[in-house]
Amino acid sequence: MATERSNSRLTAVSLLGYLRILVYTLATLLALSLLVVGTIGLIAELKGSWHWQIHLESTISYIGLFVSRLLVALVPLYVVLVVGRRVIPDA
């Protein structure tokens, strides 16, 4: 039966759907991490104290590491998503 067969394994369209969700989630994490850095930077600028400058430096250090690892995963997944949408019909 057609419904049993379609439920038993992933189709290319559903796999691209899951890939799209993963790419959007990683892009959201990237945007939120940049928002955190901007917020800490704004607070450090407004406060002008050395204490907030230390927070800004450590935040940039950790977020920079996080963003670099995130981009290592995000860029290839995005390329696969774009190519998959072009190659697979009805995706």
Keywords summarizing the entry:
mainly alpha; transmembrane; single chain; 91 residues; transmembrane helix; membrane
The overall pLDDT, averaged over residues, is 87
Could you name the ranges where pLDDT drops below 50 across 5 or more consecutive residues? none
Number of domains in the coordinates?
1
Radius of gyration: 20 Å
Number of strands: 0
How far is it from the N-terminal to the C-terminal residue, by CA? 23 Å
The general outline is: rod-shaped
Q: Please summarize the sheet with the most strands.
A: none
| H and E order | HHH
Structural class estimated from helices and strands: mainly alpha
- Percentage of residues assigned to helices: over 70%
**Number of continuous helical runs:** 3
Keywords: Membrane, Transmembrane, Transmembrane helix
Transmembrane segments: 21-43, 63-84
Can you summarize this structure?
The chain has 91 residues and is mostly helical. It has one domain (19-87).
Describe the structure.
- The chain is mainly alpha-helical and 91 residues long.
- The chain has one domain (19-87).
- Helices cover 89% and strands 0% of the residues.
- The protein has three helices and no strands.
- The chain has helices at residues 2-8, 12-47, 50-87.
- Helix 2 (12-47) runs antiparallel to helix 3 (50-87).
- The chain is rod-shaped and about 55 Å long.
- It starts with a helix and ends with a helix.
- The relative contact order is 0.15.
